[in-house]
């Protein structure tokens, strides 16, 4: 399953996820990719170990209040044990964390057209970054756009190609300000992606730009 | 059983205490874990922007979670300190940002996937190497990493970190993941 993934998350993103420094939408991207990619999962857990070392070697530990241990021991009786880890490997197009945000798999998405046959669905996340699903019909192109911030695009179904490479299920394209690209879906299948950006998109052609305020992109 | 390391230079691993907590619901093992980790969690939360009263309360809650989630701890994938760190970090996001934190799909964990003692020891050794390497970093670089983990850097300010021996740990964890994937079939 994971061996076919060629384009991975950057170390900076994996460390940011581990450190708890990413906005929610980016956490969603990372969690979705990690569900499909054990290479990145192992790297992220390595960053967790780094966090553990920092906690362990924290030189200015702050003393707990007197009676803290007794208070905590008393609390042990109240709560309930969390059941053993549950396997959440999803059968559908969307990995588990994404299904949590969509409220189901592909058939639960409420798409809105954004032109040229391309459709999108904005996912509810708080903070400075935004997440949306993109539906690109087979053979179609996403309107040519640059972006002010970092844009992460992960393929969930089908594949697309742009000036950089070809991206298939599980692959993530990490695009910064400098990249102006035109993703084109493979002709064989409609392409569905999760796209996350930490700044609004700016489309180059005038119609999408006019529509931008209404589309919340 | 886990070998307790009592030498002054060897860090204590807490794996034996975790097993006692998980299998015997041993409160004195929990108390020992509490005395060690609760002050560190409290400091972590204060450095991340929490006030001391809230940090005290949360450190207690994190330790309660440690008790209730004890059987989720996998010593071939993480040290006890790492596992406690992830619980404290999630609580911090919950508390200070009031956001959900999406988690990857879980891999199975159960008796059939019980890790080999040898795997646990190798991970402990690799973790010790990483700690040493972290301490040997130039001050500026180590401070940058600390800032990232204590919540003082935005994701844009986190650069790719090099010079830390993460590669060997990563390959150990990868083996543990492969074992879990295999157990799923
Ligand atoms: Zn990956």
Automatic annotation (TrEMBL), chain A:
ChrR-like cupin domain sequence ranges: 105-195
InterPro entries attached to this UniProt entry: Anti-sigma_ChrR, Anti_sigma_zinc_sf, ChrR-like_cupin_dom, RmlC-like_jellyroll, RmlC_Cupin_sf
CDD domains registered for this protein in UniProt: cupin_ChrR
Matching Pfam families: Cupin_7
Xref: Gene3D superfamilies: Anti-sigma factor, zinc-finger domain (1.10.10.1320), Jelly Rolls (2.60.120.10)
NCBIfam families referenced in this protein's UniProt entry, alphabetically: anti_sig_ChrR
Protein name: Anti-ECFsigma factor, ChrR
Automatic annotation (TrEMBL), chain B:
Keywords: Sigma factor, Transcription, Transcription regulation
Domain RNA polymerase sigma factor 70 region 4 type, chain residue ranges per copy: 130-180
MF-aspect GO terms: DNA binding; sigma factor activity
All copies of domain RNA polymerase sigma-70 region, residue ranges: 33-101
An annotated GO BP: DNA-templated transcription initiation
Pfam family, one: Sigma70_r2
Family listed: Belongs to the sigma-70 factor family. ECF subfamily.
Official protein name in the record: RNA polymerase sigma-70 factor, ECF subfamily
Organism from which the protein derives: Cribrihabitans marinus
């Amino acid at each position: 399953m994971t061996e076919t993934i060629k384009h991975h998350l950057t170390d900076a993103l994996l460390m940011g996820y581990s450190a708890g420094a990413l906005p929610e939408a980016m956490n969603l991207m990372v969690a979705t990719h990690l569900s499909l990619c054990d290479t990145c999962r192992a790297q992220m857990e390595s960053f967790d170990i780094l966090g553990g070392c920092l906690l362990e070697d924290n030189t200015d530990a702050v003393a707990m209040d007197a009676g803290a241990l007794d208070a905590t021991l008393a609390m042990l009786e109240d709560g309930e044990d969390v059941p053993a880890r549950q396997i959440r490997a999803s059968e559908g197009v969307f990995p588990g964390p994404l299904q949590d945000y969509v409220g189901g798999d592909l058939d639960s998405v409420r798409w809105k057209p954004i032109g040229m046959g391309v459709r999108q669905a904005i996912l509810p996340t708080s903070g400075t970054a935004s997440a949306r699903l993109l539906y690109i019909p087979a053979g179609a192109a996403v309107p040519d756009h640059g972006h002010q911030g970092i844009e992460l695009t992960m393929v969930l179904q089908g594949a697309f190609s742009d000036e950089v490479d070809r991206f298939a299920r599980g692959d993530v394209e990490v695009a910064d300000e400098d990249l102006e690209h035109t993703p084109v879906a493979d002709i064989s299948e409609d392409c569905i992606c999760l796209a996350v950006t930490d700044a609004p998109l700016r489309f180059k052609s005038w119609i999408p730009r006019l529509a931008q305020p209404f589309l919340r992109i | 059983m886990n070998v307790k390391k009592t030498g002054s230079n060897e860090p204590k691993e807490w794996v034996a205490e975790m097993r006692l907590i998980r299998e015997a619901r041993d409160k004195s093992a929990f108390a020992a874990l509490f005395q060690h980790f609760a002050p560190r969690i409290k400091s972590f939360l204060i450095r991340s922007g929490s006030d001391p009263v809230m940090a005290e309360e949360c450190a207690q809650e994190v330790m309660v979670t440690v008790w209730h989630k004890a059987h989720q701890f996998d010593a071939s994938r993480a040290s006890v300190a790492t596992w406690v760190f992830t619980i404290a970090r999630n609580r911090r996001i919950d508390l200070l940002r009031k956001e959900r934190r999406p988690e990857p799909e879980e891999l199975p964990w159960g008796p059939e996937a019980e890790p080999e003692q040898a795997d646990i020891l190798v991970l402990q050794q690799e973790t010790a190497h990483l700690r040493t390497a972290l301490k040997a970093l130039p001050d500026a670089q180590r401070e940058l990493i600390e800032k990232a983990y204590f919540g003082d850097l935005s994701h844009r300010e986190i650069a790719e970190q090099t010079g830390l021996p993460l590669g060997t740990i990563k390959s150990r964890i990868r083996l543990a993941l492969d074992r879990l994937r295999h157990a799923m079939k």
